[in-house]
Each structure stands twice: as C-alpha cells, then as structure tokens.
Amino acid sequence: MKFTIVGSGRYLPERVILSTEIDQRFGLKAGETQRRTGIAKRHFYDEGTSKLAKKAIIIALKDAQMSYQELDLLICASGTFEQPIPCTASLIAEHFLEEKHPIPCFDVNATCLSFISACEVAQAFIASGNYKNILVVSAEAGDDALDPNEFESSALIGNASAAFIFSTEEQPKAKYDVELLGAKFMTYPEYAHSAEIKAGGSADFIPENMQDRYFHMDGFELIKAMRRKLPEFLSSLLSDAKIGIEEIDFLVPHQASGPGMKIAARLAKFSKEQMVDIIEETGNTIAASIPFTFDYLLKQEENFQEKVVLLLGTGAGMSIGGQLLRINRR
Amino acid sequence: MKFTIVGSGRYLPERVILSTEIDQRFGLKAGETQRRTGIAKRHFYDEGTSKLAKKAIIIALKDAQMSYQELDLLICASGTFEQPIPCTASLIAEHFLEEKHPIPCFDVNATCLSFISACEVAQAFIASGNYKNILVVSAEAGDDALDPNEFESSALIGNASAAFIFSTEEQPKAKYDVELLGAKFMTYPEYAHSAEIKAGGSADFIPENMQDRYFHMDGFELIKAMRRKLPEFLSSLLSDAKIGIEEIDFLVPHQASGPGMKIAARLAKFSKEQMVDIIEETGNTIAASIPFTFDYLLKQEENFQEKVVLLLGTGAGMSIGGQLLRINRR
C-alpha cells in the first residue's frame, strides 16, 4: 500500500513542570524522579484539547504548504477528549470556522495508540479512494485526571499535540512517498484494567470516590504484559513484511516511560542508534507521543532517502500497534 | 465498492420507562409526551455499555452462524463510553476472553453517527484488504447524563445495542451482497454546541455546576440546522450516486425524535412507506439507533432482493451522514 505525507507539525505547550518539582512533592532527593522515569520535564496546556490540536494543525498545514480548504477529512486521534459530546474532531473544526470549509470529522480512539489506528484508517481511505487529503491530529491537554498523590502518573504524563497530513501518490505537494511494508494491531483484553480511568462514563458516571476519576496504571503489570506479548507481536509483524530488525533505520516508539522503552528495546533487540528517544523533554504525552516523535524524526533527518521506520507502541486496552514504513523524501 | 453483511443483531434492555411516567414527572396530561415526541417507551440498561454491546454481538454472531474466532477486527461505534480509558471496544472484548482470540479493538466516535463513520471505515478496510470479518457494534447504556428536570432529553433518549458483521464478497457465510452506491459525511461545526455534554473532559473535568455534566440539546437550533443543510446534503449524495429519491426502497433514519424525523422526511421528500420508523418503541438510542433500525428492517423484509436502502442521520458535531446501499439477499 502506498501513500504520501504532505506535511506534519508538533506543538509543546508553554507551562512546564520539572521532574525536580515532583521530587519535592514526593519528598525525594533531587534527580530521583528523572532517574526513575527518564523524564526531565513535562509541558501542560489548560485551554482544552481542541485549541492545542489547532496549534499543531497550523504548523502541519504550513509545513505542507497547504490550506485548510484542501483537506477533505479530519480525524482526531487522541486518548482523552475535550467534552464527552460532541467528538473532539468537531470541536477542532470549530476553530477553523472562518475557513468556511466544512469537512467530515470523527474521532478514533485506541488510547495511546489512537494515532496508529487512525493511520490504518487514513491509509485504507486513501487506498479505497474515499478521501484524498486526510488530516490526523492527536492532542492531549489538561492534568485534572492525574492523581497528585500518585507518583507514577504524576511523574510520567504530559501534554502535547501533533498533526500529519496524508494523501495519495498523485498529490504534487507531497513531501514523502511512503510504502506501508507491514501493519499490525492487537488487543489483549486480559490487561484491560492495567491502565484506566474507572469513572466518568456509563460504568460509574459520578463516582463516590474521586480516586476513580483519576488515571491509574499498574506499571508492573504492563511491563509483564509487554514481556509476554511484544516479542511475538514484533516477530510476526517483521516476518509478514519480510524485514529483518537490522533493516529498520529508526524505531519511533510510544514514549511511555524511560524504563518501559529500555525494556521494549531490549526485548525487541533494538540498538540505541535505532531508537528515537525524546521522553526526557516531553514525558509520556499519551496519543500525541508517537506522531510528535515521528514529526521530530522527520524534521531532524535532512536526507530521508529510503529509510525504514517502525512506529510502535503499547496502549491501554491493552493493545500493541505497529506500522512499518519505507519513507522516501521526494 | 462491494462488501457483504454476514449477520446482524439488536438488543433492547428490559427496564422500561413509559412516556406516561414522563407526563407525570413534568405535570403533563397523559399522552402529552408521546404526542410531542412520538415515543411511547424507552428501555434502559444499568450494567455498562460493554455488557449491553455483548448482548447484540452474541445475537449477530448467531445470525451469521459465525464464531467469535472468525472475527478479525472489533470496532465500537458508540456515542457514549463505559470508561474514559480504555476504549469501550477493549472492554467489550474483555467479555469474550474465554474465546482465547485476541483481535484489534478501537472506537470510532461521531456521536449519533458513529455507526455510519464505522461503516465507512469497515468498507475501506474490506476494499483495501486490511481486514476481512469486521464486527461493528453500537451500544448506549445508562441514564446518568440525562437531566431529570429537562423535558427534552428526559423524554427522548433510551438505551439499546446493535451489531453488524461485515465481510468480503468471498465470505461463503455472507447473507447479503451489498453495493455501496454512495456515501457522504459532513460536519458543520457552527452547530458544535447545539447538542453537547460540556463537562467531564479536558474542557471542564469536574464542573462546579452539575448541570454541565448533563446532556443538553437545543432542539430548535438543530431543526434549523437540518432545514439549512439536509436538502443540499441529500441531493449531492443522490446525484453523486445517480439515484433518484423514488428509487430508494427504504430510508433507515437516525430515530432522533418524532417531529425531527417528520421534518426530515418532508424536507427530503420521503414518503411514509419509504421511512422505517420505530421510534415509538425505542426512543432515540444515540449511535445504536441506525444499526438497530437497520437490523429491524433486515429481519422484517423476507424477500430482500435488489433493494436500495439509505442510512441517514444527523448527530452532535453537528454532522450529517448517509450511506446509500443496494442490498441483495443471497
């Protein structure tokens, strides 16, 4: 399957929380939070998901030298939402009302892997001819769901946004030709509750215990799940694509946590040189993490010729998703 | 584009609220709520979205004479969710753990039109060869987001679930061959706040005013929006498909409200005979409404040969979505 990347953009909001502030909050010695998580700072945004998404979209449109009027689909691929109703994609489109260009809007949600699922959808739409210029945006805003008394999520999660514009091979503005060498997505629901926000939906709309409105993850359980599932997942993805691990130029992983990424790299036998690791500067930005890191890579590499890139991550559900791309700068 | 329907199912939960109870609550004379809304009763389910989804899935699998192990993708297409994290599709898959058959799971959300968006995704996946046997399920559970003091949503919204299994033409178990004659989806974000739940997401996580956790719709504004947008939307869908309105055998509309459906039928010049209207028995079941009504139609019509069916609805966002299908029973 072939498609193109016309442009992309990423945005990191201004408000910063340093890991040294987390040290102080939890009575740890300076540097301990960074030592445990690999994270120096996280950024936060308080004006809602849709405005944060808009920031990345404007950068991506400029990068693509494309106007909003040229888009024909907007998919929001975030793990969290701005309002329970309507979908966040509609609220994002509201910020582009002055463009007088209505387009179809919907959300795709696979928590931290939403961007990977939305890429699958966008690629299928391009292959089937349903849509041509597809904007996929992931944005995560706010810190209200982070329990200030729980070290793990308090120290890991941050905000960011990133947007990609995908199109057909015929798009003259395309920057990169992309060949999808392989794609795999799998959900292992025995770990469905290892990372969750229990309350706020139909299961428990207004909980008695406020704790249930907070994000909770069982890091130990998730790492156990990754050990059990990741090696087989990856070898099946690579063998379907007939690609050896050494042929992968860049691994763009979900920046989940410093230790998690190290274990994943070891399990999958990735070298330090293959791994794009920017978690120190961003923390875990949920669904924004993979497109943010992917955009970072595209902007870093001057000469992107025939590079093989693997987007890979785990997300609540628990799901593992991977996209193996051969990318060629036009 | 061609695909098949292998099977489908719908489920209406047991707990009933009669419109005469709403008459009493709002001090109206008996029959007034039904006169205003077209609804005699709604059904409610208190055990969460995923269990309600499971009910419809089991019926659809039986209808398809298919086992869960034959599925290769599960899309949850609901307008509301069970938990903020993970996606509802994962929580649904958790109920099928004993099948020992992990499949990819994600959610598609376009509020009341989620099923239409998910159909577009499923059709593109089938056309592009990504997936073969795709389960799309819509389920809406709970009444916590309905303001008991607001007549409109209190009188309209109900719970239900419905599931469809779509596949390729090669699937020997397929019951219906389907040709997609046309599809259109459009979002008009100037009406993004005409139907919404303001609080509970990143915009306002824990609101000061509990009212903001309730669903609110401006029925007058939505009907105005429909008058402005629906006729042009529909004529563009029909002319792209080269189909006249009189060639449509059945309109399967989103069962939004009695008056809304009447206005839509008049605007679009549909006859009473074309319209599948079951709102009296179900109320507005959000995203479950279209697949529930579609399944009802398929089970009603004994001899489904070369019928042209239009799935059509409006949803929060505000979006209009339509799928024009030529359906032939094998």
Question: How do the strands and helices of this protein lay out in sequence?
Answer:
Two copies of one chain form a homodimer.
Chain A lengths: L1 E10 L3 E4 H7 L6 H6 L3 E4 L4 H16 L8 E4 L11 H7 L10 E5 L4 H15 L5 E7 L10 H6 L3 E8 L8 E12 L7 E2 L19 E2 L1 H23 L8 E4 L4 H11 L10 H4 L6 H12 L6 E9 L3 E11 L1
Parallel strand pairs in A: 4-5, 4-6, 11-12
Antiparallel strand pairs in A: 1-7, 1-8, 2-3, 6-7, 8-13, 9-10, 12-13
Explain what you see.
2 copies of one chain form a homodimer. Chain A is of the alpha+beta class and 330 residues long. Chain A has 2 domains: 2-175, Peroxisomal Thiolase, Chain A, domain 1 (3-Layer(aba) Sandwich), CATH 3.40.47; 177-329, Peroxisomal Thiolase, Chain A, domain 1 (3-Layer(aba) Sandwich). Chain A is 32% helix and 25% strand. The first copy, chain A, has 10 helices and 13 strands. In chain A, the strands form 3 sheets. Chain A has a 9-stranded mixed beta sheet with strand order 5-4-6-7-1-8-13-12-11, sandwiched between helices. In chain A, strands 2-3 form a two-stranded antiparallel ribbon. The first copy, chain A, is globular.
